[in-house]
Amino acid sequence: MPERHPTAVNGALALIAVAMTAAPAVAQTTLIVWGDTLRVESYKVYDEITEGVEIDIVTVAPEEVVTKLQLSMRAGSEIPDLIFISDAPNSAMLSTRRTDYLMELESRLDPALLADFYPNANAPCIVNGRLVCLRSDLAHNLIWYDKQQMEAFGYEVPTTWEEFQQLGADLAEHHPGHFLGSAVDPYGLYGMLMAAGCDTATTIEGRDDTLLVDMQSPDCLRAAEMIDAMAGNGSLIKSGPFDPEFAASAQEGKLLLYVGPTWFGEFILKPSYEIPAGRIAAAPPPRWESEPGPVTWSFGGGGFGVWKDTEHPDEALDMLVWLTTSEANQKDAVTFPPYSPVTRLWGEKLITDQYYADDQVFAAMEEAATYADPNYGARRFDMPSVIGKIVSPIMASGGSLADTIPALEEEIRNTARVSGYDIVEE
User: Fold this and answer.
1) Confidence of residue 24 (pLDDT cuts 50, 70, 90)
2) pTM
3) What separation in angstroms does the CA of 38 have from each of 44, 87, 410, 417?
4) Buried b vs exposed e over 75-93: b needs ≥16 C-beta within 10 Å?
5) Cβ atoms < 10 Å from Cβ of 352
6) d(Cα 126, Cα 139) in Å, to the nearest integer?
7) With contact defined as beta carbons under 8 Å apart, do 221 and 229 qualify?
């Protein structure tokens, strides 16, 4: 055996020590994160900029999240540390005895950070009084309108629902064929009922898993009677905003105004209805004359949550906060960010967007965000599906929403009970 020289041995050890010092740090933590395809880029960016954490990205279709999560939790493996919830109210479906997944967040996050979200922005993330997710985007309703056509007809943008109804009546009389929205779309109907203060399924403070369902109230009936009157004169038409008939009429310039979500301009009016540049503007949502201000509902808006039993709570919470509040992630978000300090940066592109008729679209969105309904909360069932099942077919065949209220109320109660809720009526 050849002789080992001490100097050579020492030199080799020194080289090994230098190599170990120069080697890049190995990630100490791996976070499994689930999201749809739109979330992947944000996840990758966070992976690149964060030291000591490796992100294992799993793409899951939104409609498969609850089922796949239940399977993972039952198997006790590959449970994500952080998850994207495509529709924030679905947080209730991830906070059941069967799928008790989501971490309570309010006690773990800086109160000042939470205070900088728009008012009630995180209401859909509250389950039985516990904040269990943070919203990734808001989809609150506002008024989208054809400014050129409104001015040509000599109309003012309605500021109240009573003015909205009167505008529909005048439009039907003097400009038949033009319209203001849909009489059958479940999301639109839901939004108008809730804007009136209707207790379709309101949570009861201090009473877990309890809902107030009272649709015989004047608040519900005033909205239903307005919708019936406008469906009767044709200012609300019997097709939905994603139906070919609706889109064709909008492309012909017949849609004068639509109360819809923040994303409606960029993703529907512009590409689907092909409304030319320079015509579309936006305004805050209407209020009822008897009320001090508007109440606006949402059509969409997702959120992020963290597994309550994650082995890496600090790292998962850091990622959650970055995804929902960082300028780097939110200033170029697809839709309206809920964290107010970065929202202005996001809105700059709308202020200068030459597609819109003026520079007030973002201002309308921002004001509308302050009117978000605190009752837009998490439920373990899908209310638009219930409305679509009971109401939409009746309205499409010329029936009355006011007359259908008792049947809708009963269906909501039955659906809620099956989902594990107790029901109160007053």
Assistant:
1) low
2) 0.91
3) 11, 14, 38, 34
4) eeeebbbbbbbbbbbbbbb
5) 10
6) 17
7) no
**Tokens 């309108």 -> residue:** 145
Phi, psi of 59 (to 5 degrees): -90, 125
DSSP 8-state symbol, 83? E
Contacts of 312 (CB under 8 A, 6+ apart): 29, 31, 81
Mean pLDDT, residues 310-327: 98
* SS3 of residue 395 by DSSP: helix
**Measuring CA to CA, how many Å separate 28 from each of 25, 54, 82, 311, 381?**
9, 8, 17, 12, 39
Closest alpha carbon to 211 in 391, 378, 374, 88: 378
- Contact predicate 400/413, CB 8 Å: no
Contact 383, 201 (CB under 8 A): yes
Residues in the chain: 426
Burial class from Cβ neighbours inside 10 Å (0-12, 13-18, 19+) for residue 74 reads exposed
Complete domains list, the chain, with CATH? 29-138+300-351 (3.40.190.10), 141-297+379-424 (3.40.190.10)
